[in-house]
Amino acid sequence: MKCFAVLLAAMTLAMAAPADLDTSKNDDNFLHNCDFVNFGLGDNDQNPWIHYSCPLNRPPYMQCSRLELNDCIINDHGVLRGQEKGGFAKSCKDCVYLHDIGNLVCQCAFGNPTQFRETHRYLGEYGHKSMKQCNAMSPMYALIANVRM
Prior knowledge:
- Helix content is 21%, strand content 36%.
- The protein is an alpha+beta fold.
- It has helices at 2-16, 131-137, 139-148; strands at residues 35-40, 49-55, 62-68, 73-75, 80-82, 92-98, 103-110, 112-122, 127-128.
- The chain is elongated, with a radius of gyration of 16 Å.
- Strand 4 (73-75) and strand 5 form a beta hairpin.
- It holds the Pfam family CVNH.
């Protein structure tokens, strides 16, 4: 439910933003109007997350959010796919997010828990903002980010 609420909020923010006329981007990706801030693996490399900022049509004109990827992605026999409370990181390792092409890349178990293969999940391709820019735009975000990190 937490993942759904975050996704719903991000979709609302993205829809409130000016339309993106670049049709080469995935139209069903709620982050297509958002900027990447950073990616992390979290506690013991088992709780990956992505920070992003999305435009608003009212002050502060930018909303920064952190999406816990375990809440939204599952490892389905070596294939990453969307599913609420998926917990993919329990059976995946060495995850990286390639923000320039929008791919999450991990080594994930399939069949046998000791067999791993490289798998990819497209999360979105967006611009880049620094954490400093994000914090400067949203004082409440800075407070939340400091508590959660």
